[in-house]
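Supplementary notes for students who missed Thursday's class. We covered one full example, reproduced here. Read the sequence, then the structure, then the short commentary at the end.
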Amino acid sequence: MSARQLTAARTRTRLLDAAAQTLRDQAMAGPTLAAVAKEAGVGKGGLLHHFPSKDALVKAVLRRLCGAALALNAAAALIT
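Structure (token representation):
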């Protein structure tokens, strides 16, 4: 993986972390892209480079959470 790809992957991870945190913090009002970008420490343009819309960002967060839940379920199945 090149340095540029590594930086992009880290930024994407920070954005997903920030989106999940912002969703938790602002669940009733709904997160704004500006709040997610601020939480991740990137500009709104950087966020939109990785996720072209709020819908795309929320879907990526949900995919990530579902993937983590499936991994935990699989790990639990190995234990029992």
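Commentary. The chain has four helices and no strands. The chain has a mean pLDDT of 86. If anything here is unclear, bring it to office hours.
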